Amino acid sequence: MKTVEISAFAPAKINLTLHVTGRRADGYHLLDSLVVFADIGDELRLRPARGLTLQVSGPMADGVPRDDRNLALRAARAAGVLDVAISLKKHLPAAAGIGGGSSDAAAVLRALKEGWGVSVGDVAALGADLPVCMAARTTRMSGVGEIVTQVNGIPPLPAVLVNPGTAIPTPAVFAALQEQDGTPMDAIPAFADAESCACWLSAQRNDLEPPAIEIAPEIGDCLEMLLAQGALSARMSGSGATCFGLFASQSDAACAADALKLQQPNWWIQQTVLGA
Ligand SMILES: C[C@@](CO)(OP(=O)(O)O)[C@H](O)COP(=O)(O)OP(=O)(O)OC[C@H]1O[C@@H](n2ccc(N)nc2=O)[C@H](O)[C@@H]1O
Ligand SMILES: Nc1ncnc2c1ncn2[C@@H]1O[C@H](COP(=O)(O)OP(=O)(O)O)[C@@H](O)[C@H]1O
């Protein structure tokens, strides 16, 4: 048994783009997505113990499953480690399109590799977002999520994340998608700054945004409010409902986040830097 406690960080995953380019026979969708990671996320600690346990705390812990549905526990089981106490401090909203559960699972797998020396062969069995969350760096994600290719040339992007508090199950959004065969992303250039990245993004898409807005119209309000605060670009991440706005500087993002918090004190609103 190991004797040390290991800390692991599970950053928020943001799909800057999400093009749905086809559908497999098993119903899973083919994706083409530019994925970055934020400097905010969940905090995990793993320590040797008798048996496998999970304790969940933190400002966004409400509603997160504590039982075997939790992806942190499922990751430990998949790795065959049944003698670990996991403590998970949730800062990210669940079912929010920012991969909280998948990033937690990836953080557990990284910690188990470091501390217990074990790894899992097929991480995708834990969910389509697991491979990209294992990479935890700027990536082009394709296939149904299993193909991850490192992307260089994306500068750190000052941003504000906004979630209106509506949990949206991913399957419901895919089920509401009308067009399954969209075009892939354009080639990804190297960007000098946030402005040029935002300009390129304006010609790309998140194909899940229209069906998600049908399910939760408040997503449209998030996007409008980010743009009204001067965002260079505003879009939904993943299957929603979290939206991101890109800003020219961290001070612009901080001003926008403060103003949005005054307008919507009950929403989850966070200033961050993406892809740093
Ligand atoms: C949409 C994305 C984009 O990054 O992110 P989130 O919105 O979940 O953060 C991911 O592909 C989500 O990954 P993840 O949440 O791990 O998905 P899974 O648990 O494997 O699948 C949940 C359900 O989503 C649908 N699904 C997921 C991935 C995919 N490529 N095609 C799909 O059709 C299927 O209906 C599946 O039953
Ligand atoms: N560690 C976890 N944190 C949050 N949700 C989790 C976790 N493990 C399992 N879940 C379940 O996974 C679902 C999807 O959560 P999450 O990964 O945060 O969202 P998304 O797939 O939209 O990015 C939630 O509804 C929740 O029930």
Please write out the topology.
Blueprint: E1 6-15, E2 19-23, E3 29-48, E4 53-57, H1 71-78, E5 84-89, H2 100-116, H3 130-135, E6 139-142, E7 147-150, E8 157-163, H4 170-175, H5 194-201, H6 209-215, H7 218-228, E9 233-236, E10 243-246, H8 250-263, E11 268-274
Parallel strand pairs: 4-5
Antiparallel strand pairs: 1-3, 2-3, 3-5, 3-6, 6-7, 8-10, 8-11, 9-10
Helix pairs in contact: 1-2
The structure holds 4-diphosphocytidyl-2-C-methyl-D-erythritol 2-phosphate and adenosine-5'-diphosphate.
Adenosine-5'-diphosphate binds at residues 64-65, 69-72, 94-102, 104, 170, 238-239.
Enzyme class: transferase
Family: Belongs to the GHMP kinase family. IspE subfamily.
Protein name: 4-diphosphocytidyl-2-C-methyl-D-erythritol kinase
Question: What's this, in brief?
Answer:
The protein is of the alpha+beta class. It has two domains: 6-148, Ribosomal Protein S5, domain 2; 152-274, GHMP kinase, C-terminal domain (Alpha-Beta Plaits), CATH 3.30.70.
Poorly predicted spans: none
Could you spell the SSE succession in H and E letters? Answer: EEEEHEHHEEEHHHHEEHE
Number of strands: 11
Structural class: alpha+beta
* Separate helix tally: 8
> What fraction of the residues are assigned to beta strands by DSSP?
25-35%
Task: Please state the second-level CATH architecture of the largest domain.
Answer: 2-Layer Sandwich
* Annotated CATH topology of the largest domain: Ribosomal Protein S5, domain 2
**Which oligomerization state do the chains in this entry correspond to?**
single chain
Q: What is the highest CATH level, the class of the largest domain?
A: Alpha Beta
Main beta sheet strand tally, sense and closure: 7 strands, mixed
Q: Which small molecules are bound?
A: 4-diphosphocytidyl-2-C-methyl-D-erythritol 2-phosphate, adenosine-5'-diphosphate
Tell me the overall shape. Answer: globular
**Tally of structural domains:** 2
What is the CA–CA distance across the termini? 35 Å
Whole-number mean pLDDT: 96
Rg result: 18 Å
Helical residues, percent: 25-40%
